[in-house]
Amino acid sequence: MNSQIQRMTRPINDVNDSVIAGQPAFGNSSTVSKAAGQLGMSITLDDNNVFADTSIGTVYGGTFQYVRLSSGSAEPARGQIVFWDVSVAVNLYQVTTLETGTVPGAQFMAGIVLNPDWTPGNYSYIQKLGLVSVKFRAALSAAPAGVGAAVYAAAAGAGVDNGLADVIASADPTDFSDVSLMANRYLGTAWQLPTNGGTTLVFLNPRNYRG
Fold first, then answer.
1. Nearest-angstrom CA–CA distance, 199 and 117
2. Are 55 and 40 in contact, with CB atoms under 8 Å apart?
3. Angle at Cα 106 formed by Cα 38 and Cα 155, nearest 5°?
């Protein structure tokens, strides 16, 4: 069972711990934490209980998880999708900005980045459920029908659109393989109208949830 007691060193969208929970086990240890059990923990907060830095962006109530960003990742953008890193043991709760860890790509979405200054190799919170600002690719694949459009990982691979979201048009006919990809890449429902290169609110649905 996950504990709701967590050590948060800064506002939830500004956490960038070099050791788990920012609690060195002794002296100035750079690797060992006296609160190592916090890694992988989730916490659910409502709007009134979210402590966030509004100069970075608004954080809404939802479910958040404390994870490590792989040292091989690029520094992510606010609203970017991160993926479970399948190259390491699952108990390390490590995420990556790379979509290419699976074939086809972008299959193991973990959550959405809150802190745009998250240093690769450090620990922070991602959002997994609820309203969250999501960054969209530079040119959407289709014009969204409106608020309530289905949102997916763009799965654009390496490049400027890596880890960003997209909306798509209807395909006729639709192959079973297309349906499988759409199911695995589904993020949620647009709460605001997605725009080319914009960062807008999406209501995240449960995807690849890990306790």
1. 16
2. no
3. 135
Tokens 């798509």 locate to: 168
In this prediction the pTM is 0.91
Q: Would you say 8 and 35 are in contact if contact means Cβ atoms under 8 Å apart?
A: no
CA–CA dist 102, 108 (Å, integer): 8
Which residue ranges make up each domain of the chain? 20-204
Structure confidence at residue 1 as a pLDDT band (50, 70, 90)? very low
What tens digit of pLDDT does each residue of 25-35 get?
A: 776 666 777 78
- Report strand pairing: 165-166 vs 199-204: unpaired
β-pair partners for 117: none
- For the chain, how big is the Rg over CA atoms in Å? 17
Please return the burial class of 157, using the count of CB atoms within 10 Å of its CB with bins 0-12, 13-18 and 19+.
Answer: middle
Which whole-number Å values give the CA distances from 127 to 45, 75, 139, in the listed order?
11, 17, 24
What span, in angstroms and rounded, lies between the C-alpha atoms of 208 and 6?
A: 22
What's the one-letter identity of residue 47? D
